[in-house]
Amino acid sequence: MMGRAIWLTGIFVVAGLAADQAALERGQKEEARDCLPCHSLRLIHSQRLSRATWNKELDKMGGWGVKYSDRDALMEYLSANYGDDKPLTPDGKSLDGRKQK
Ligand code: HEC
Fold first, then answer.
1. What is the pTM assigned to this prediction?
2. Count of domains forming the chain
3. Domain span at residue 44?
């Protein structure tokens, strides 16, 4: 009985992670499509913004003509990788030298 509950929980956790991963990948594609026409990704990836500020940033770029097809996925991607809780170093590596995700 208990074993089964744990097993089911495991399935839901794995399904949740897979969904997140798919959204992050869609977000990254969306970024390349929407943002690269005007500037490099470096300008974006050198920021560390809160979710609310990323949202404003996307509004600002929207005002300059970006047509989002999957804005939610892009928001997930930006706040997961370039949130204000992530360390900021000039070469995009974390302080212990590992490449940041
Ligand atoms: C129509 C051209 C254009 C597109 C498309 C565009 N940007 Fe920008 N972006 C700019 C310009 C111009 C600046 C510099 C503006 C400034 O100095 O305020 C900028 C600056 C930025 C900055 C630096 C902070 C700021 O506001 O100045 C960020 C972050 C950013 N863009 C994110 C994005 C993202 C994310 C996308 C894709 C969703 C995107 N941009 C698409 C024109 C664009």
1. 0.81
2. 1
3. 2-81
What are the φ/ψ torsions at residue 99 (nearest 5 degrees)?
Answer: -65, 135
Q: Report the separation in Å between the CA atom of 59 and the middle of ligand 1, taken as the mean of its atom positions.
A: 10
Residue 32's identity, in one-letter code, is: A
| Residue recorded with tokens 């996307």 | 58
Q: What is the pLDDT of residues 5-33, one digit of tens each?
A: 777 777 776 777 777 899 999 999 999 99
Please indicate, yes or no, if residue 49 is contained in any of the structural domains: yes
Place of tokens 């940041």: 100
Residues 100 and 86: beta-carbon distance below 8 Å: yes
* CB of residue 57 inside a 6 A radius of ligand 1: yes
Tell whether 8 is covered by a domain.
yes
For residue 61, how far is its CA from the centre of ligand 1 (angstroms)? 6
Provide the 10 A C-beta neighbour count for residue 90. Answer: 6
Q: Position 14: which residue type?
A: V
pLDDT digit string (tens) for 40-87?
999 999 999 999 999 999 999 999 999 999 999 999 999 999 999 998
